[in-house]
Amino acid sequence: MSFGTALVVIAAIIAFTVLKLARHYSRQERIDRAPARDDLETGRELEDLRERIKVLERIATDGNTLDASETRRIAQEIEALRDRQGS
């Protein structure tokens, strides 16, 4: 490899590195300049999530109450009576 070829290869490597660094820093600058979320909006979203969790907890636990088990038992008895009448 001649001295001129080595210089061209080194210059190409340096140019490639500079371009990669410039791209990285421009992306980072866009991220840094992005507007921060409003605290009020974040608070509202947090309250919405808490409300959803409450609903899910109620759905999960309501199936285990006495009323729910009684309702299931009665429904099973009705189905059993329907099966007897259909036979």
List the helices and strands and how they pair.
Elements: H1 3-33, H2 39-62, H3 66-86
Overall average residue pLDDT: 83
Order of helices and strands: HHH
Q: Major sheet: size, sense and barrel closure?
A: none
Looking at the structure, what is the overall shape?
elongated
**How large is the share of residues in beta strands?**
under 5%
Give the uncertain stretches in residue-range form: none
- Compute the number of structural domains: 2
Distance between the first and last residues' Cα: 95 Å
Percent range for helical residues? over 70%
Total strands: 0
Work out the helix count: 3
Radius of gyration, CA atoms, in whole angstroms: 34 Å
Global structural class:
mainly alpha
Outline:
With 87 residues, the protein is mainly alpha-helical. The chain has three helices and no strands.
Account of the protein in words:
By secondary structure, this protein is mostly helical. The chain has two domains: 34 residues; 50 residues. The protein is 87% helix and 0% strand. It contains three helices and no strands. The longest helix is centred in the first third of the chain and has 31 residues.
Sum up the structure in keywords:
87 residues, mainly alpha, 3 helices
